[in-house]
Amino acid sequence: MPIVAGPPIAGDGALELSGRNLADARPRKSLRMEEHEVRSLVLLKIADGRLPRRTDKLWAGPGNGEVCDACERPIAPGQYLMEGVDGGRTLFRFHRECFAVWNAAR
User: Fold this and answer.
1) Alpha carbon distance, N-terminus to C-terminus of the chain
2) Rounded Cα gap, residues 46 and 106, in angstroms
3) What DSSP string describes 23-69?
4) CA angle, corner 23, sides to 11 and 49, nearest 5?
5) Spatial separation of the C-alpha atoms in residues 33 and 40, rounded to whole Å
6) CA gyration radius for the chain?
7) Beta partners for 67?
8) Exposed, middle or buried: residue 65 (CB in 10 Å: 0-12, 13-18, 19+)?
9) Which of 32, 51, 56, 100 lies 20 to 30 A from 38 at CA?
10) Which of 51, 56, 64, 54 lies closest to 92 in space, CA to CA?
11) Alpha-carbon span 47 to 4, nearest angstrom
12) Any long-range contacts for 42-51 (C-beta under 8 Å, 24+ apart)?
């Protein structure tokens, strides 16, 4: 997945996503956790069923300390939270940049 330089999200050093369509979301700079580590975790969790392969509904908003289901780190206030449900109505939460990795991997 190509990485394109871009500005961080205001104040938190996280990366911003390119594209207006969620299917086109791509990371612009490295994740706090190495991108290959997040990708490996995401692939493992998809394979063993801890992360879904699809989503029926998806919401975005500010984080409030929720734990990211991909990297297992808190989603702090000021960071974007991507929250959704799969076909079995299981709730999942991602940092915006972890969502981009999951979306590309699924």
Assistant:
1) 13
2) 7
3) GG-EESS--SS-HHHHHHHHHHHHHTTSS-S--SEEEEEE--SEEPT
4) 90
5) 11
6) 13
7) 74
8) exposed
9) 56
10) 51
11) 28
12) 42/70, 42/98, 42/101, 42/102, 42/105, 43/105, 45/69, 45/70, 46/102, 46/105, 46/106, 51/92, 51/102, 51/106
CA distance 98 to 88: 21
- The one-letter amino acid at 101: V
Blockwise average pLDDT, block size 10, the chain, 106 residues = 36 40 48 80 95 92 96 94 87 94 93
20: closest CA among 60, 51, 57? 60
Q: Beta strand 91-95 with 80-85: parallel, antiparallel or unpaired?
A: antiparallel
Question: Residue 17: which of 101, 91, 93 has the closest Cα?
Answer: 101
